[in-house]
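Sanity check

After download, print the first record. It should look like this:
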Amino acid sequence: MVVSHPHGISVGATAVMGEYCTLTHGNLIGQLRGDSDRPVIGNYFVAATGAKILGRIRIGDKVRVGPNAVVMQSLPDGVTVAGNPARIVRDRRPPESGSAPRIAGQGASPDSHAAVLRRLMEVITNGSGVVTPRDEIDENTVLLGGGIGLDSIEMLHVIGAVEEAFGLTIDESDLNIRHLETVGSLAAFIGERLSR
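Expected structure tokens:
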């Protein structure tokens, strides 16, 4: 287990945590209603700052909980959740058999910059839950702060929607702030991942 910035972390005595879990400051893993109703958490779990996992619930393997999210229901393997109450914003489970992976582009090569950029703009305006008119963004539009002005939770929604639309699994360690500066820089990052 990795404990980053171990201030204000509280884990109930009867809570169960799997291997390779990561906690950060302000995490609470414990009772919701009392009577030792504590969670059972799988392997490769990551809790961001202030995340709370409460009650007699089961958390699957490779689950990520966003900053200040409050989880009070069981979660399947491979999901990322955010919000209060927490809801799934990213699902890294393999698609059901028979469904083709979704990839970018129509006509152009699936990983050409133009095709990725076009699909990314569709994802941002229609598939991520972020309300942005399509005619207000282009390759040079700033994502964080100015421009669209996404916050960290909204960016999590965008990354989840990108993973779904492009059939990718993006690990947070692969992302750098420079990838998230503009629509174009995120498209370039996606194109590089698709070409691997």
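If your output differs, re-run the checksum step. Summary of this record's structure: Helices lie at 113-127, 152-166, 183-194.
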